[in-house]
Amino acid sequence: MGTAAGGAAATTQNRRVREAVTTARRVVVKIGSSSLTTATGGLDDERLDALVDALGARTPGDLSGSERPGGREVVLVSSGAIAAGLAPLGLSRRPRDLATQQAAASVGQGLLIGRYAAAFARHGRTVGQVLLTVDDVTRRAHYRNAYRTLRKLLDLGAVPIVNENDTVATEEIRFGDNDRLAALVAALVDADLLVLLSDVDALWTGDPARPGSRRIAEVRDETDLAGVDIGGSGRSGVGTGGMVTKVEAARIATGFGIPVVLTSAAQAVAALGGEPVGTYFHPSPRRPAARLFWLAHATSPRGRLHLDPGAVAAVVGRRKSLLPAGITAVDGAFTAGDPVDLVDTSGAPVARGLVNYDAIELPGLLGRSTSDLAAALGPAYEREVVHRDDLVLL
Ligand SMILES: Nc1ncnc2c1ncn2[C@@H]1O[C@H](COP(=O)(O)OP(=O)(O)O)[C@@H](O)[C@H]1O
Ligand SMILES: N[C@@H](CCC(=O)OP(=O)(O)O)C(=O)O
Question: Whose CA is nearest to atom 4 of ligand 2?
Answer without folding.
Answer: 177
